[in-house]
Specification:
single chain, about 140 residues, mainly alpha, Adenine-specific Methyltransferase, domain 2, 2 domains
């Protein structure tokens, strides 16, 4: 399975080299630098799996996908504009008082609509967030 987001420094092209290096008899998999989860989603499942990243907004996004996927989709549907992008960017940077779902939706919006998934500048070509739930793992 592929990841549903891009990530600067992601392992999308390296996963085909990394996964064969994993021993077959390992029961635990710990992803220290989770990011977009390219290796995590592509490898075979392990008995125990830990997904970690220093980015709390990213971890919140994965938590909301796991526990509140439909609410996340409702929060992000039909949004697409440069003005929203910079408003959401400011809210994330200033740690505005948002619910976890609102924070996850804004963060996902920044990833999906930014140039190169950097979350720093609005992309001119729409990547889209409509029906993103269909792309989620």
């Amino acid at each position: 399975m592929n990841s549903f987001i891009g990530w600067v420094g992601g392992k999308s092209r390296l996963k085909k080299y990394i996964i064969p290096l994993m021993p077959e008899n390992v029961e635990r998999y710990i992803e220290v630098f989770g990011g977009a989860g390219w290796v995590f989603f592509a490898k075979i499942p392990h008995q125990t799996e830990i997904f970690n990243d220093i980015d709390g907004n990213l971890i919140n996004l994965y938590r909301q996908i796991k526990n509140n996927c439909e609410e996340l989709q409702s929060e992000i549907d039909w949004l697409q504009s440069r003005e929203l992008f910079y408003e959401y960017k400011k809210q994330i940077e200033e740690k505005a008082h948002l619910t976890d779902i609102q924070r996850a939706a804004r963060y996902l919006y920044l990833i999906k609509t930014s140039f190169g998934s950097t979350k720093s500048s609005f992309a001119t070509a729409p990547k889209g967030t409509y029906k993103i739930i269909e792309q989620l793992p």
